[in-house]
Queue: 4 jobs
Job 1
Amino acid sequence: MNLVKATGTIGGLTLVSRIAGFGREMLMSRVMGASWQADAFFVAFRLPNTFRRLFGEGAFSAGFVPLYAQRLQGENGEAEAKHFSEEVLAVFVPALVLFTLLFEIIMPLFVAAISGYSGEKLGLATFLTRITFPYLILISLVSLFSGIFNSLAKFTAAAFAPALLNITMLAALIFVRDGGEVSATAPAIAVTIGGVLQLGLLWWAARRAGITLKLRRTRLTPGVRQFGRVVIPATLGAGVYQISAFIDTFFLARIGTGALSYFNYADRLNQLPLGVIGAALGTAILPQVSKHVGANEPHMAAKVQGQAAELAMLLCLPAALALAVSAGPLASALFQGGRFTAEDAGLTALTLSIIVLGLPAYVLVKVLTPGFYARQDTATPVKIACIVLVATVVLNFALIPPFGIAGLASAIAICSWLNCLMLYVVLHRRGHFRIEGWLASRIARQFAAGALMVAALYAIKLAIPEWFTGSAGHRLVGVLALVSGGMAVYFPAVWVLGGMDKEDIKALLSRRGKRGSDSV
């Protein structure tokens, strides 16, 4: 499998989902504004998504994919892997159902503890969260099917599935535009409907691929025990990250009305390169690193991670710099209008310009953690995550009182780099991965190209300031000028300066995998 081609496939389809997500957020901002009803919806949307990352992405990225890939290499191949999947499914489904039922019962207490809401606002947030929470079961099952497809290097259906959620929510906002509680309820219902559609797509794709899973009787088989030994530490590690997300929600809810909305819209822009680049790379390289580690080829595993780090920085460095410089025009063009004021857009831009400074580190974490997961070491990332969590809490308490939402964004950016640095140091000391001279040289050249791009973006802002105010159409044209101008400078510059593997880029453009030593 060619890493660049696989990343391009996953990233391209993820981009479709992100574009639909942007349409959803643009309409949400205009319909709901930065109101307390919007804040209540974002609490209801964040909670099941936080647990999704814990049970779905955390468990299956860390445990299921390496173990499934290991069985594919075994004597019975696909039959053994299929049997393992069914054993895991038989335990996973009842556990998810019980967990969801428990939280549906204690939802008022849980939402109150996380948000600090009371009265009417607590009632709406609880009602909406009870609607969205079953999404956890659906998306966790989607993660299981996605893990199977990714292990088989079949990325299309799993990468496209998230678009169905965004399309469903977008449709709900188009048809229910009254604002207030009614417009907050419509996308909440759409969340669960979107989960049903995602699971339906993956189930249909599995049937077409000849993958049929039966729901067996729940049993703690040797395979399930092995899965548990790997997944429990990984889930605890993911849990640390999600506790951090709960802490963010806790502080945002107390900063004041609108803070959750500002952070959500800023994070939506931040998540575009995270989803397209970070998630795509992490998904693409884990099966390959696992394969090389299983075949006792540590040099090839390190090579995959090195190529992924190069590609990550090539794409996310300009994204981070461009988002930081262009935060104001972007937030104004995309979200300002209707009930979302210029002041709201300004606070969203401030949050975005700070939080994206941690973007390269966050993407590199997606590249580094497979080096642990492929070796079935999920304990080390847990320990590092705990240290990062403590640092996040300390920084939140230190920075939020004087700086408000800007302080919270700063804490997130700083701790992203702390996490990245600690993961790299451990891998380096163990001899699993190191930044070699060729990689350091390319990253330095990428920074040089990024500096040229930043200069060009400032020049564009100074040359046509009138295009960043006025009507929505004017502001959109100004943003398009920034995007096209930045790309027109960065990519030619990084090509000329030698900040990329030109053969890999040619392979991506031609959609052909390379052969020989260039293939991973």
Job 2
Amino acid sequence: MIKLKNILKSILEKNSLSPQKNFLIVEDEICQNKDFIKSIKHLAKGLKDLKVKPGDKIALILPNSVSWYELFWAIVSVGAIPVPLDPQVGEWELRELFSLMDFHVCFITSKYRANNLEESLKKILNNTKLTPYIIVQNGSECTSPFMSWDDFYNKRPRESEEILITDTPDGLLMYACTSGTTGNPKIIAVEHAGFYQSQRDMAEYLGLNSKDTMLLGMPLYHQGGFGMGVQAALSGTTLIYQPRFDPIKFLEIIENHKVTHIQLTPTLAKILLTVRNIEQYDLSSLRLAYFAGEVLPDELAARFYEKMNIRVINIIGSSETATMVIWDSQYDKDVKVNDFRTLDFTSVKILSPEGKSVKEGESGRIIIHTDAILREYYKNPQESDKRILQIEGQRWFDTGDLAQLCPNGRIRFIGREKRIIKRGANLIFPEEIESFLLSHPSINAVAVVKKKHEIIGETIEAYIQAAEGNTLERKDLMKFCVGKISSYKIPDNFILTKEIPKDIGKIQYKYLREKRTP
């Protein structure tokens, strides 16, 4: 039985020990521990003035910022439930979410990149009976139900009373929205107790402490970026996020802030390592590079732990389970980087389509047990029943990922079942092709997708982003593949693009076709 300990209480306890220490840095914003405590009090009072009650749902549709982080924990402090959303979310997607969730308040940025959130919400509210408060950052003049951030935050008198933390009525921490690679949103009910335990366990495994500084290369609305930030915050570690990934600034931050831990996807790591004159940056403070979100090529991992003497952690995790299995260069260098083992606080099974445990050398679906397994998919009982399993008196999660059972109980990650490409008689895993193509010295990012074909079923399309200062031709890419991977795995079409859409962390597959170039 997990004993509930409030994450916010634990973070505040750490903060109170070193009030002048930097807690969170985003771009030029620096929030010290004492500032974070004051802001939580101030924002909590503002939420109560908007009549926010325990259990109310509050949307956060903001890019990485200090205010995002402060708002999240202020919402938690009053017993309400934060719902972080991608600020790239479109009008149609928002309309669907509003039909599912009765938001009491929405905090939004007026515009994010080309996405005009303020205009989208005006259209939605004009055609519904919904009446949530909409708090707008960086917006124009606001009229009810819209309110400017200045009116909500800056014009409110500062309060000095103690923070009175209220737990949610049903023990939920948040609703996390994920669209995966298909664009179909799933809303995950994340339980406070299990999430706390999983992040505390992982922080202890990593050995994080108050002398460390962590730079995270993923967005806060994503469970990976947020979750590892919680691991750091629980340990008194200084957190640094970027509002948008910039490789030069990323390297400058490591140098200037003596960063000890970084979190990256393989794509972002490849972009970093191809920065011109990277050797001019002082990266000597770095001790650990933490990878998640994509398949990590062995060659890329080796550049960190062999050539740069930086410990590499490679994780498979999901929003539904938090951390699942791990590869750690400190202990696992004798096996390939995608041959994973369980942690002391996770369990794994590889099951056949019939639900039986596979034998060594056979493949099946990854089934995981962790403390952080979601309670349910919100208002989606069919998906909840399909994916949340009761096995031997425990709750397990069917990840939809495929793996091979290896010696010593390790699992070799193959790919995600929903991304499989059926090309003629062959089943192809795009993750394998992406990992291979990322080993090309002139490629910075790769996204492999399938395209319907009337004769062979599906063909392979590879979107390619060249490293800065490099030019690539389709014939060169074809030559690179021939003889190195099976002929049926060679992409049928290479699509050269200036940028593969990504929002700090994972590749945004659903936006790929918008980036297609002639």
Job 3
Amino acid sequence: MKRFLPIFDWLGSYDRAWLQTDLVAGATVWAVLIPSALAYAGIVGVDPVVGLYTVPLALVGYALFGGSRLLVVGPDAALSVLSAATVAAVLIGGEFLELTIALALVIGAIYLVMSALHMGWIADLIPDPVLKGFIEGLVWVTILDQLPKVIGVGLEHGDAGFFRKLVDLVEVLPDLQVETTILGLVCIVALFAIKRFAHRLPGPLIVLVLAIAAVAAFGLDDNGVAVVGETSGGFADFGLPTGLEARQWWGLVPGALAMVVLGFTQSVGAAKRAAEATGERTDPDQELRALGVANLGAGLSGGFVVGGALSKTAVAISAGGRTQVGNLFAAALGVLTILFLLPLFESLAFAALGAIVIVAMYGLSDFGYFRSLWRVRKLEFAIAVAAMLGVLTVGVLAGVMVGVLLSLVAIVEHVGKPPTAVLGRTPDGNFVDVNTDPRAEQIPGMLIWRQDAPLIFLNVRRLVGELETLTADRDDLELVVIDCSAMSDIDSTATLAFARLSRAFEGRQIDFWATHIRDRIWDRALAALDPNRERHVQRFATNADAVVAFTERRQSAG
């Protein structure tokens, strides 16, 4: 039970002295979650109140099933963008909200299936350059989508791509609504100022309250400022969305899979941040289960997709939170907000919500990463930029596919063209790359070669080609040694190439040895050789042992 519901693992040893700090942390998390839930609902494309429905059961679901004592789940900007794009792709009629809820349920189910299959490794599926490039693209797509709300205009091509909408925005700037623009800009400046000079304060909540007060005090809604308007109290109907066709449910799956990979990757990052504060270890499969339950809770209560939120988790940590009791308290405050505080949001300007989203998304932008990536490895810089441009040019969902393909390119590049080295012996007996240490000398009649990667179908042709090139002009060569210290595995394609290369060397009176080779790799290599050729292939523990054996053989022969 403790493994399935980790809350029982720590609740029994809960120290009552923690309660005060947990309650303070919970209230602080609530103060940050509520404005972001209202704002991100606009990204998703649903009424702001739907964001409030999303929060309580998601928090409770993770608190019961999550392995982290401090991780906070909630609406996420990147996932919200993907949610809107996924739903729009399968929309037939006016079921946008129903499909949004269904998407959260599908995502929850996928998380649970992956947990059952122990697929926690998917957190490592997207390399950082692709993830950073993808998120950078989402940042600017989302900011552009929110700008019309901040200046009170509509775009002619609201469903067009990034650059078409950018042109439309420039064209309508002369028609901006003055009162809306002033309110939006004041909100943006206030958010940046609070973040810069009083970062411990809940900036979004402060701006939200002040914007509501400004609309009410100055009658801005009567002067053209768009507001949320009348909302109904209480919860939405609890349960599954109705009226959807089976093909619409299935149509949500591709986008849901992309959101699971992205959401889980970000959630694991937030869980690691929480683990630094608590010293606990997180189980990726447990996190999959907890995120599945959280998304099912969000969907069943009429909300949208959630994920582990790094910024909210950092807030809980800085507020002194100790356990998920704080998040349970935040969930209770969320319920009270829905039951009693909804009328207060009727005067909430969409410009304020757009400002909150813009500042939050700008905080995710990280051009410094691109600059450092350019210095570290230009190929990965190009991959990051391509992922960003994919989102900006072909759209969010197509950008996901670009990101996946770029991930595969990165893997193929890394495994298909691994570093290799011809090794020589230094005066102190070490074997190093002859191109990096001028003291290293090759052993006469002997070639020692190392590949720093598994030997598989992606790189075996390169191995064979490089060894053939290195040995082509060596008339004195009697032995080729492969240093397998960095070779973690070998597949069938490589073993057969290994056997062919051994036969080719045998025809030239060149033996083929291996050092530092793992038992399973050695067994596979021998299985590909004819028994009468095995004597030409030997293994040694170290390069030094191979050199000693080769030297002794030459001495005995000469």
Job 4
Amino acid sequence: MEYLVFVLAMVSFAAVIFGMEVARGAREKKDFMNLLYKNCTRLNDKKYSLERYVRMGSFFERHPKEGQLDDITWNDLGLDDIFKRMNYTLSASGEEYLYYTLRTLRQNEEELDHLEDVIEYFREHPQERVQIQFSMKKLGYTGKFSLYDYLDNLDFLGKRSNHKSILLDLLFLPLIGLLWIQFSIGVLGIVILVVYNIISYFKEKADIDPYIVSFSYIMRLMEACREMEKVAVPVCAEEWESLRESGRRMQGMKRNSYWVMSPYRGNTSGDILAVVMDYVRMVFHVDLIKFNSMLKFLRGHIEDVDQLIQTVGYVETAIAIGIYRGSVEDSAKEGRKLLVSRKTEDAPEESPDKDPLLSQGKGWCVPKFISGRRVGMEEGYHPMLSDPVKNSIGAERGVLLTGSNASGKSTFLKTMALNAILAQTIHTCTAEDYEAPFFHVYSSMALRDDMGAGESYYIVEIKALKRILDAAASGTENVLCFVDEVLRGTNTVERIAASTQILKSLAGSGILCFAATHDIELTELLGNEYDNYHFEEDVRDGDVYFNYRLMPGKATTRNAIRLLELMGFDPKIIEKAYGQAEEFVATGSWQCS
């Protein structure tokens, strides 16, 4: 009776623990689903280790395509930060495909129109979006390395055969039969075979363990695809068919995979069943045998795995773009409230409800693609600025920007470049209106010395400029380029002479160049090829004020010496500097006094 009570108590205790775990899981799922419905913009709150940066570029590196951004342009424009800003993905497949998307400029409207349909469908159907996202959450990540890294390394395992393991398992049969003839010899033979199998098992297990991670991810990927297919998404009919076809061909990998993928593998909880399963694996090498058959199957279906990753990543990327659009709209609303509150403080008699600021746009637009080479942007801004000053421009030929440091030139160049890139990647521009033809985008902006290669800033810069000229000279690319302070790494005379000729070359057919410079001489020398715009500042009351507004024409103010004065430099330095500058303007030559 006491034993029965004990057993019932243990069963009851296990049931309570199990019930608590189920309840906790249900509660966590409910909280996460609420997050997806009500506050999904929090999903980009991620930590980025070096391993994560390396991993998320894996899909991009293995899928080269014409029109992809090179490393110089990506780094010049700070696109790592843009990526992190819109990374609302929940799986490695989605994260890697989003990175790939941001670096791959699409060159036709058909692709972008379909992407637009998928983005807006999930924005308008939150229930379907959340179902897909929950599947992506369960899919998750692969650890330190990308799945592609594991797939690339499959060859290191070499050819693996099950012959030895099967032969050792078959040896148990005669040894068991020997028990009826010579019991002690049969027992000794079984013990020796068991010990040998266990020792060899751990050696083999150490070799395959790193690849279990990739197998596990592929199993989860197949399950996620199966769940996605159940969600009715009419605009994804082609994607769903692709999932079905690739998933059907991958079914062979799932058969008896529990021996390898079982949750009991490596269990240390003391569960009796777990212990039994572990000893079965160690003695009979069941999981090693299944691993080898899975490995052989996988090697013949790499393209199917790639297709699953690509399709899942595409859909999750579309969802992430939709969430990003919503976050931009939220920021625009907050910005309008801030502007209204400022205006109300200045004129409290006016009602914020009637303020014209409330009729401003949503902060983003779908780009329009046109023929020719005209670029038009209305109320565009840098996507990483929380309280931006918006600018507009229409350009059919090169644009030359002048103005003092910190006046807004570089930010405007980046604003134009980023909107050109976002138009052809995520079909979403941070502007009220954007139109342009399809371009290949290059930049030469935030360069630095390459100490590793032993190259000076000037060498790095001319190499960066040469690659743009080569792209334009190929005649196969419609090039949009952005150059900040061309040839700043050399002396004034040669800089102006060489800059003039380089920028003239960048004004040829098939190329549109936006350049910023401090060399006012270029505004005259390039007057036939470039339209002049400038940014200006106001020095008053002992301080400098920038309005960051793009103005037509070249810069006319010179405040560099005035800024020295404001910073408390010796008045003699200021006086002599003014005198030299005025004499150069009057005579065209420098005099030292």
